[in-house]
Amino acid sequence: MHISFTSADSTILDGDDSFLAQLLWSRLKPDTWPFSLAQLPAGTALVGGSVRDGLLNRLQEKPDLDLVVPNNAIKISQDFAKELDATFVVLDADRDMARVVLKGWTIDIAKQIGFDLEEDLWRRDFRINAIALTLGPSPEIFDPTGGIQDLHQKKLVAVREKNFFEDPLRTLRGMRFIGELNLSLDPQTRTFINTYAGLLLKVAPERIQSEVQRIVCAEHADDAIELTKEIGLLDFWGNQDESYLSTLLPWNNHNFLKNKELSVALPLVRLTHLLSDAGLESLRFSKRQQQRCKLLRKWQKCNDGNDFETLNEGDRLQLHKDLEEDLPALILQLSAKNQEVWINRWRDFKDPLFHPSSPVDGHTLQDIFDLPQGPKLGALMNHLSHEKAFDRLQTLEETLKEARHWLQHN
How many domains, in total, are found in the chain? Predict the structure, then answer.
């Protein structure tokens, strides 16, 4: 969702802290939370994304709730999970952090870092995430670093330099916030990110993967990816095949895709563009995700600039077998004249080429021709699929005749 600060939004962000606290409280709808505020200890505060998104009026129906408590975060989380019959996970035993998951809600509870809440907020990544809402009888906004002003100015500003050293993942997380919130990067913060980019190698690959997944799905992902590549944050895992990258057409023209199609195709294109096959494996993306990217990359490289018109029948059929589910991601690379044709054929599940299948099942072929299970049966079914894909088989009679002919010559 694009965030534009209308006059009404500006008034909200320019209001005094008391007004902001009341507004944020109403948007958070604490009466819908899966626990009672009475269960929380004195000194508890809500921090992080839900506070930021509440101020921006972009909260999800069940926002993730990040709570800071003075002590005993894991014990409080265990008690919550027991009372609510929820899932409980220890996130970091040393730092006293745990998670409770219940009916679509994710509640992270962490022990306050430092002497008080202000010290905790000064240890966070960016000022827009260092805003707290105290959860006492009269909730109050607490913004010691100036995060609300950054939201108003649509800027991403680091809390302080040493926080990047303490957790280098924050360099990449900044790119995610740029992609999700359409923010500009503060020059000094960019210097910090440049300085500590190399430390990403010390971060657990699963944590990097999680941020990358969110970056490629963000509405302004292309801006974030361009900046990521400029800084070289992911160079160790990145796609450095310049001959491949230079052949890719920009994917700015995607109005021919429906929102649901676009939500699958664009992240896949971006991920393939951003990371190499080895990088995907190193960052422990799923085998399925690695395979999807590998196949898309393979066929992107095969485009001769003529939208695959020079492919022979066998290769054309293999293209549609490999990319049957993900074909819109490849269609983004085609010229405008062919995008509509390809996507309309792909949406027609009866199209024999764009959704290839054998015109007859294997059991029928085994029964009629007394064929055993094995490579020969598979080869026959592939041959029949090929003939069907190019409209040379229309009826069962034609199919069986072709099968008989193939068996006689093979």
Answer: 3
Report helix, strand or coil for 359.
coil
Q: What is the 3-state secondary structure (H, E, C) of 187-203?
A: HHHHHHHHHHHHHHHHC
Which one, of 82, 80, 81, 108, lies nearest residue 95 by Cα?
A: 108
Contacts of residue 157, Cβ cutoff 8 Å, sequence gap at least 6: 126, 127, 128, 146, 150, 186, 188, 189
Rounded distance, CA 355 to CA 344, Å?
A: 12
Instruction: State the Cα–Cα distance between residues 346 and 340, nearest whole angstrom.
Output: 10
Helix axes 362-369, 375-389, angle to 10 degrees: 110
**Banded pLDDT at 32 (limits 50, 70, 90):** very high
Residue with tokens 């330099």: 161
| Rounded-to-integer distance, Cα 288 and Cα 294, Å | 10
Instruction: Report residue 389 as tokens.
Output: 């894909």
Q: Which domain holds residue 266?
A: 237-347
**Pair (28, 84) in one structural domain:** yes
Residue 209 counted as domain residue: no
Question: 3-state DSSP helix/strand/coil percent for the chain, to nearest 5?
Answer: 55, 10, 35
Residues 6+ apart with CB under 8 A from 151: 13, 52, 55, 56, 128
Q: How distant is the alpha carbon of residue 303 from its chain centre?
A: 27
Mean pLDDT calculated for residue range 111-121: 94
Among the candidates 107, 136, 153, a domain finishes at 153
Same domain, 307 and 403: no
d(CA 262, CA 356): 23
Q: Is the pTM of this model over 0.90?
A: no
- Boundary residue ending a domain (347, 381, 399): 347
Which pLDDT does position 9 carry in this prediction?
45
**3-state SS, residue 317:** helix
Q: Do residues 359 and 384 touch, judged by C-beta distance below 8 A?
A: yes
Q: Give, in degrees to the nearest 5, the angle at Cα 376 between 371 and 381.
A: 90
Is there a single domain that holds both residue 339 and residue 390? no
Candidates 256, 274, 260; CA nearest to 334 is 256
What is the Rg, in whole angstroms, of the alpha carbon atoms belonging to the chain?
A: 27
Is 117 contained in some domain?
Answer: yes
When pLDDT is cut at 50, 70 and 90, the band that residue 336 belongs to is confident
